[in-house]
Predict the structure.
Amino acid sequence: MSKNFLTRGYARALNRHHKIAVAGVAALGAAAIGFSATPSDASTTTTSEAAPAARISYSTEPIKDVKGTITDQLAGSGVKTELIAAKKQAATDAAAEKKADAAAAKKKAEQERETEEAASRSGDRHWGGERVDTGKPVQESYADNLDGWIRESLDIMNKRGIPGSYEGIHRNIIRESSGDPKAINLWDINAQNGIPSKGLLQVIPPTFAAYHVPGTSKNIYDPVANITAACNYAADRYGSMDNVYSAY
């Protein structure tokens, strides 16, 4: 009876003092067996207990290749757009410059034409709407009166070798027409024959046509043309208009 008492007492003491220690040793042993039984590279065995959630890592490192490609594409597109815009602007500027040059050239041509016409008018006469080509340089001008007509005719006559003087021409003009370039004789024999005498020196149309001086108007009423034709006729028939003192 004493032995049993000691055993029970010992058991009770063991349970009371070493219960926690024994349980811890058992747990450590089980854990050691579990770790040694599972290979380090083996897949994890699914258990009834929920596996802890896996942690997800987010990398902040940029994807260099993709980003570079997109950037290059955008850069290339931007450069192409700028080139197209620059080309269009250059074409617009060139067109504007060409238009301005054409306008300037047109204006210059018009100014030159106006200058030439003004100079031509100063050296030419117009009678009955017909231009008179005097053959004189455009810088020379003559008064639009009897004095100017005689002087212009004398210059033409000198170039053509037709004799005559200012005095002889003026004298005969005053006798024939009193200085009226539109004078016409409607009563003499020529008028009766249907070919009246006309102009400053009263020349009939057939005589005017036959002795017309090139470079002058073909209008018989033109004063310069009338004088030079009459003087040409007088030179042929009388030697010079200076030798005429009456109807000729």
Notes: The two ends are 202 Å apart (CA to CA). Confidence is low (pLDDT under 50) at residues 1-14, 30-51, 120-132. Helices lie at 2-37, 64-123, 146-160, 166-177, 189-192, 205-210, 223-238. The first helix runs from residue 2 to 37.
